[in-house]
Each structure stands twice: as C-alpha cells, then as structure tokens.
Design brief:
This protein has 341 residues and is of the alpha/beta class. Helices cover 41% and strands 16% of the residues. The strands form 2 sheets. Strands 3-2-1-4-5-10-11 form a 7-stranded mixed beta sheet, with helices on both faces. α8 packs across α9. It binds 6-O-phosphono-beta-D-fructofuranose.
Length: 341
C-alpha cells in the first residue's frame, strides 16, 4: 500500500509523533510506502511531497511543530482539490490519505472523502474542541504551558500587588482556560461559552484585597466576551479562512480592570507559546496511538473515518460526525469551577 500523509491548519505539539507512528506502522509493520505532502493540502495540490522512510522520521517524536510544514487553504482551492481528488490520488499512486488536522482540516477531509478520496483523518488541536473525540493531542501540552505561566505570574503579581490577566487560546471553546485556570488556581476564569460581567471580576479582586490577598490572576480565553452593557468590546473581523480575528480581550480587560480598580493590571498574552515546543508524554502517547490506528484503518479500508479517543479506547468515527459541531465546555464543567467564574 502507498499512503500519503499531511498536516494542515494550525500546528500543534504531537504532529511529528503521529507522522512517525504512521511511518513506523506502515513501513515496518506492513511493508508500505509513505509519502508526506508539504504544507498541508497545498502540497497535495501543487505536487510537493517527499518519501518518508524510517530514517526520515528518526528523532522527531519529541519535536514540536511538523516536519512536513502546515498551511491553511482557501475554500476555492479546497473545492479544486475535491473536484480533482480521484485524479490526484491516481497521479500520486496513493491508496490512502491521512490528513492530520483540526476542524477545518477534517471538514476538508470529509469533502475529499465524499468526492471519492480514500481518507482516514487524525484529529489534532490544542483547543480540544472536536466533539467526536474525548481528547485531542496538543491540549495537554497547551494546558501545561498555560498552567506554568499562571504559577509564575502569581509570584510576580504578589510582589507588585497587581492583577494579571492571562489570555490563552480558545476561539470558540474555553477548554484551555478552564483547565489551566483550575490547575493554576486562577481567581477568575472567562470562557467563550459564558459571557462575563466585569463588575463581578472587580468585586472579586476588591474582596481579595480586603482579605489581605494583594494580587489576583484572571485567566481569559481569547474568544471570551463581556456581557452586553458590562464593558465596551468590539468583535473582530472575519479573515479569508472564515476565522474571526480577535480584538484582544486580554489587553482590553486588563485596561478596564485597572481603570475601575485603581490598581495596576497587566495583560499577558500567551498566544503561540502554547502551540510550540515539545509535546507532553500524554500527547506523545495519544498521537502515537492515533497514527498506529490510522494505518490499521487504511488497511481495513475504513475510509471516510477519523480516529477518536473514547474513554481510553481509540475508535473510529465517521468524519461527518466529527465536524457537525464543536465541543464546547458544558455548564456542569463550569459549575465545578464556579467559585472562580
Ligand atoms: O489551533 C487553534 C488555534 O490555536 C486557536 O485557538 C487560535 O485562535 C488559532 O489557532 C490561531 O492560529 P493562527 O495564528 O495560526 O492562525
């Protein structure tokens, strides 16, 4: 069998672990050939690919990013790929394509599968917002980075009697903010799923200072938004990939708190730090398992499917199911952290 693999969309710690695992299982386990397309679907369309053998993936398990490069693709070019996908598969001689990516990539994978490409998807995203799987690799690493940041910010906040507003990733789902906020013991958590009232945050900080705790850390997801009438905040524009550009809630909230409290407040935007660097052991294991199972699925002919973690089992779900809706933080998970909302 000849298998094509690509990584698309925003990168994520653990991508290289999947690529390595696919190559190991395919080449060493099945005597397959593997080719890697460069820069996601762009490489598939532009004919940029390279063979991946055991040497090519040696030493990449712990490496962040993706050795294949990643890119987002405009919708028009995706349609082009879908329209030509049988011809593309034939021209590369591939019997299976394993695209590794988030919601956008899996939607594209579904389009290709519907058009006749033999596709087995692997979900990734630090945001953990793909509904068909309990977990995506990358999330554990991102939560670790954000938690460490909160831990560190607490000590400097305390030295200077400041409020720190830590902005973490999460455009539509606040999983990183929820879990790093809980793990780091943030005093306030703001998620996209539930609008926040800035007056509640002001009250919380004032009460802390009144109790002699002279600092506070608030963890805010980039997609969080204030309740109507609570604070001025403009929504961002939509970019060419259909993503909303954020207007900087961390900066805006820190300025508002400083104003209302008359105390120093500093924004800290963690941004792509959460996506870079070496994956945690958990993410390496999950990524490796997904890669292994993706190759097995290809050999069984289970196309149009995606890897998913359900409990501790890796299972297959239809790509169609994976992209119906995003997995958002449910109310009961927010209730568990309620004292900090
Ligand atoms: O992978 C998803 C994500 O991490 C979002 O949380 C974030 O808004 C986005 O990627 C940013 O990606 P980029 O800057 O690469 O477009």
């Amino acid at each position: 069998m000849r298998i094509g693999v690509l990584t698309a969309g925003g990168d994520c710690p653990g991508l290289n672990a999947v690529i390595r695992s696919v190559v190991h299982r395919a080449v060493a386990g099945h005597d397959d050939e593997v080719i890697g397309f460069e820069d996601g679907f762009k490489g598939l369309l532009d004919g940029r690919f390279r063979p991946l053998d055991l040497d090519a993936v040696s030493g990449i398990l712990a490496r962040g990013g993706t050795i294949l490069g990643s890119a987002r693709l405009e919708r028009a070019r995706l349609r082009e790929a879908a329209e030509n996908c049988e011809e593309l598969a034939r021209s590369y001689g591939i019997d299976a394509l394993i695209p590794i990516g988030g919601e956008g990539t899996l939607t594209a994978a579904r389009m290709l599968a519907d058009a006749g490409m033999p596709v087995v998807g692997v979900p990734k995203t630090i945001d953990n917002d793909i509904s068909a799987t309990d977990r995506t690799f990358g999330f554990d690493t991102a939560v670790g980075v954000a938690t460490e940041a909160i831990d560190r910010l607490k000590t400097t906040a305390e030295s200077h009697q400041r409020v720190m507003v830590v902005e973490v990733m999460g455009r539509h789902a606040g999983w990183i903010a929820l879990e790093s906020g809980m793990a780091g013991g943030a005093h306030g958590i703001c998620l996209p799923e539930r609008s926040f009232d800035v007056a509640d945050l002001v009250k919380m900080v004032e009460e802390r200072f009144a109790r002699g705790k002279k600092f506070a850390v608030i963890c805010v997801a980039e997609g969080a938004h204030p309740a109507a009438g609570s604070m001025d905040y403009q929504k961002g524009e939509i970019d060419q990939y259909g993503h909303e550009r954020f207007a900087g809630i961390g900066n805006r909230l820190a300025a508002e708190l400083e104003n209302r409290l008359g105390k120093e407040a500093r924004p800290v935007i963690l941004g792509h730090v959460q996506r870079g660097g070496t994956p945690t052991a958990y993410d390496r294991v999950l990524a490796t398992r997904f890669g292994w199972h993706a190759v097995e699925a290809a050999h069984r002919g289970d196309f149009g499917m995606m890897m998913a973690l359900r409990g501790t089992e890796v299972t297959l779900v239809p790509l169609a199911e994976a992209v119906i809706e995003l997995k958002r933080v449910p109310a009961d998970r927010m209730d568990e952290a309620d004292s900090v909302f």
